[in-house]
Amino acid sequence: MAENGSDIWTERYRPRKFEELVGQEDIVKRVKSLTNAMNIPHLLFAGPAGVGKSTLALIVVRELFGEKWRDNYLELNASDERGIDVVRQKVKDFARTKALAEVPFKVIFLDEADALTNEAQNALRRTMENYTANCRFILSCNYSSKIIDPIQSRCAVFRFRLLEKKDIEKIVKRISEKEKLQIEEEAIKTIFELSEGDCRRVVNLLQTTASISNVITSDLVDIIVPSAKPSDVKVILEYALSGDFRNAKDKLLDVMLKESIAASDIIKAIQKEIWNLSIDPELKVRLTERTGEIEFRLVEGSDEFIQLESLLASFVMAGRGK
Known about the structure:
There is one protein chain. Helix content is 56%, strand content 10%. It is an alpha/beta fold. It has 3 domains: 24-159, Rossmann fold (3-Layer(aba) Sandwich), CATH 3.40.50.300; 165-224, Orthogonal Bundle (Helicase, Ruva Protein, domain 3), CATH 1.10.8.60; 230-319, Up-down Bundle (Zinc Finger, Delta Prime, domain 3), CATH 1.20.272. Strand 2 (73-77), helix 4 (84-95) and strand 3 form a beta-alpha-beta unit. The radius of gyration is 24 Å and the shape is globular.
């Protein structure tokens, strides 16, 4: 069912109109009104991956220029080209020329702009200022805090949020109808949990599972993307809280080795399951703080098994009231 290439479905089901973009209704409404006026300011789209930032930029450009949008649009990925030379050459050369359309300006889209060096951002600031008559910039980033203040002050800033379950359901059902797939309700829930609100991940999950079967079940999704089952994580934590460190450790190793799950994914599963435990709310807060500390150590390169055992030891001590 799925075609070769992980991005084929992503491109096929990319929204082409404002009304097709789900999950960011307030932002879409405001950007649409700016676009309809045919005179957008510089825009900064900030938020997590896979929530529609690049798609909204493409919709804006298509609405402005129609069939001539490719002649008046430059897209650069700042992760690949992040130095000052890119701003001085590609960006400036494109920005200084006039648009080939009724709209009096071109559009430059800088994806992952938070990867630009400070030198490049300062050069970009001057370019945005000098060529406003000929060019508008749309910047996309995951962390707006990494964009220097002078650039942020020149842009209308829109902050995107992760997609909710109802948004993911719309996307899944739209794709299933066009691809003639049968998707169980439990599978939709599993896909949402695994995607963590990332639409791109949803589409890739559907494409991968559809290559195996037209009937998509929760078990099939779990086979494609191994993850720690909440029931298993709950058993581990209950062992630890009851003071049974050995069984908690053995169960943890069994889950990690059997399902080939990384320590970082186990940490996230534990963090979620903490709030489903029947323990004092204050204790949940302390255990969540401890979980965050262990994740930081893992990111810094500590041994994952030692750190996870240390986390289980914290749960054992918490269960004893210490």
